[in-house]
């Protein structure tokens, strides 16, 4: 299985035709991949290629970072207010997958 691509992240966000988003995701992918590899201590990677389940974690985490790269939490205009998703590390479901690859006790 090849490494995740910016196009996969953009498709995940249902914005696969947005070339700027694809490029931004491509910039974020090495960072998120490195965090996943560090968290699992390299388990689940063949050289630098992640297993299929780790690829899914990389794509979903990268999608959160790419969708809101500046980390804006809330936006308000007059009475309208919206709360945006912020990448603050791995979410619960991603951690459940990652923990399967990580040895936590001796």
Quickly list its features.
globular, two-stranded antiparallel sheet, 4 helices, mainly alpha, 11% strand, 49% helix, 106 residues
Task: Characterise this structure.
The chain is mainly α and 106 residues long. Helices cover 49% and strands 11% of the residues. It has four helices and four strands; from the N terminus they run H-H-E-E-H-E-E-H. It has helices at 6-12, 19-39, 52-67, 92-99, and strands spanning 45-46, 49-50, 74-77, 80-83. Strands 1-2 form a two-stranded antiparallel ribbon. Strands 3-4 form a two-stranded antiparallel ribbon. Helix 1 crosses helix 2 (19-39). The radius of gyration is 15 Å and the shape is globular.
Can you describe this structure in just a few lines?
26% of the residues are buried.
List the secondary-structure elements in sequence, H or E: HHEEHEEH
Number of strands: 4
Physical arrangement of strands within the biggest beta sheet: 1-2
Low-confidence stretches: none
Give the structural class.
Answer: mainly alpha
Percentage of residues in helical conformation: 40-55%
Sheet with most strands: 2 strands, antiparallel
Compute the average pLDDT: 88
- Radius of gyration from the CA trace? 15 Å
Strand content: 5-15%
Number of helices: 4
Shape: globular
What distance separates the N and C termini?
31 Å
């Amino acid at each position: 299985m090849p490494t995740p691509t910016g196009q996969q992240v953009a498709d995940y966000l249902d914005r696969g035709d947005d070339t700027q988003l694809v490029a931004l995701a491509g910039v974020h992918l090495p960072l998120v991949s490195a965090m996943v590899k560090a968290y699992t201590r390299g388990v689940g990677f063949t050289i630098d290629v992640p297993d299929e389940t780790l690829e899914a974690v990389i794509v979903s985490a990268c999608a959160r970072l790419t969708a809101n790269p500046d980390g804006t939490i809330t936006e308000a205009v007059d009475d309208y207010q919206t709360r945006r998703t912020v990448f603050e590390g791995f979410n619960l479901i991603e951690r459940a997958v990652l923990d399967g690859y990580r040895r936590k006790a001796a």
